[in-house]
Design brief:
This protein is of the alpha/beta class and about 450 residues long. It is built from nine helices and 21 strands.
Length: about 450
């Protein structure tokens, strides 16, 4: 035992001396003893006695590397190590801390029915910061126990300094036990470039362009996953050198999702890439003066197609830039303000879509010689039928880069017109109008 204020002990005997002096002068000996001992105890407390007792309970923080440099076999071994330590824990304290770029909380599924640690998802998995992980582990250890840290990692740090963290732990008297993982083998595959859109719409296919190089030709497997769930796998043949690949994905869940791409080649290893992508539901402006129950089937279909449908009966105050598609259902287009027609034309040129559904409110003006802005935005004009049987219209869109009709593009156009004429004859149409269009944009207006 030691005392922080040992000089107080020099006067701690005074209450006992006072008790001896007063003993013969009082008959209340019991009260005198209590007072003397109380004063002596107060003086001893002011001296701040300290008693060091050896603590045997251990507080252990188990750091597990779950970055992308760790293989599936390594994660399995790390899970077994964590499980073995947990089984031998007894009365000691233990906490498992997964880490990559930074530490993360354990997912409930990782510790249920035995330890099953998973790789960190997203951009955070592309770095290993051992220094930050050790600092977090040291800070999480409870006081009053013997501190200890277990580090399970392949040691391939690319951020921070493990040497600095080990020195700081040594100064605090905290030992670090290490368990070495093999890590990912150096693949012969090389990911040269990848292009993933940062924003996409739910239900819409978006492209992913990948360029991968390999020293030798052979088969490979491309796996696409989102939030840890596989979306699909496909087999490709890689040639020696650079290989451009194009993938297409479609997701129906809005929000920020982690998209992962893995390419595996026999004898060449595998490469991974992770990136967050923001998915939004495309917004659709539905312009109609009909009662909602009249066309509820159409709006229900659009909603099922992942559109966020907003219905309005007053088009003049709508902000077109907030929507990806504008649908006019049985709307008087001729009665629309000229300024709003200009807005629609500008909206279409900037990539917006327009869909027109005809009805009794649509008017067709004969002999109109000057096109307005709305007519310029729409790819075709549909005149009323000239015969009782009606008119069938086939719209042929030439998406080639040629506009003169020569060469391969011209041959494709003639074949399209021939197919349209055969369709008309097969349907026994008395009035048939094939229409041709050139170089349609990829995201242009749609007219029905």
């Amino acid at each position: 035992m030691t005392f922080d204020r040992a000089w107080i002990l020099a006067v701690a005997w005074l209450p006992l001396a006072w008790m001896v002096f007063e003993w013969r002068r009082t008959v209340r000996h019991a009260a005198l003893v209590v007072k003397a001992l109380s004063l002596a105890a107060i003086l001893l407390a002011l001296a701040e006695p300290r008693l060091n007792i050896a603590e045997t309970r251990v507080a252990l923080a188990v750091l597990v590397d779950t970055s992308s440099s760790v293989s599936a076999a390594d994660l399995e071994r790390a899970s077994q190590l964590a499980g073995a330590i947990a089984n031998e824990r007894g009365r000691h304290w233990m906490r498992v801390i997964p880490f990559a770029r930074s530490t993360r909380p354990l997912d409930p599924a990782e510790e249920q029915k035995g330890w099953k640690l998973r790789q960190t998802a997203g951009e955070a998995a592309r770095a290993t910061d051992l220094e930050a992980a050790i600092r977090e582990a040291v800070a999480s250890l409870p006081a009053g126990m013997v501190p200890r840290v277990a580090l399970i990692s392949d040691g391939k740090e690319n951020k921070g300094s493990i040497a600095r963290a080990a020195w700081q732990a040594q100064q605090l008297g905290i030992p670090i036990d290490t368990f070495v993982l093999a890590g990912q083998p150096q693949p012969a595959l090389r990911l040269e470039s990848i292009s993933v859109p940062s924003l996409a719409f739910t239900g819409e296919q978006f492209p992913i362009d990948v360029v991968v190089s390999t020293p030798k030709a052979g088969p490979a497997e491309v796996e696409l996953a989102a939030e840890g769930r596989t979306l699909g796998k496909t087999q490709v043949s890689l040639h020696a050198g650079t290989n451009p690949l194009r993938l297409h994905a479609s997701l129906n869940t809005p929000g920020a999702l982690d998209l992962a791409i893995a390419i595996r080649a026999v004898g060449a290893g595998e490469v991974h890439f992770d990136q967050a992508i923001m998915l939004r539901r495309p917004k659709l402006l539905y312009v109609s003066q009909d009662a909602p129950n009249v066309d509820s089937h159409l709006t229900a279909t659009l909603t099922a197609a992942q559109f966020d449908v907003q219905r309005v009966s007053d088009f003049n105050n709508a902000n077109l830039s907030d929507y990806q598609l504008v649908v006019f259902n049985n709307w008087d287009l001729e009665g629309m303000l000229a300024s709003r027609k200009d807005d629609i034309e500008k909206y279409v040129k900037q990539g917006g879509g327009v869909l027109v559904i005809g009805g009794e409110r649509n008017m067709y003006l004969e002999g109109k010689k000057v096109e307005d802005a709305l007519e310029r935005a729409l790819p075709a004009k549909l005149a009323p039928p000239r015969s009782p049987e009606g008119t069938a219209v086939v719209l042929i869109i030439d998406k080639s880069s040629s506009k003169d009709g020569a060469g391969a593009a011209g041959g494709d156009r003639r074949r399209g017109q021939s197919a349209a004429h055969r369709l008309g004859r097969r349907a026994d149409l008395r009035q048939f109008v094939p229409m041709g269009g050139a170089d349609a944009p990829r995201r242009g207006p749609h007219t029905h």
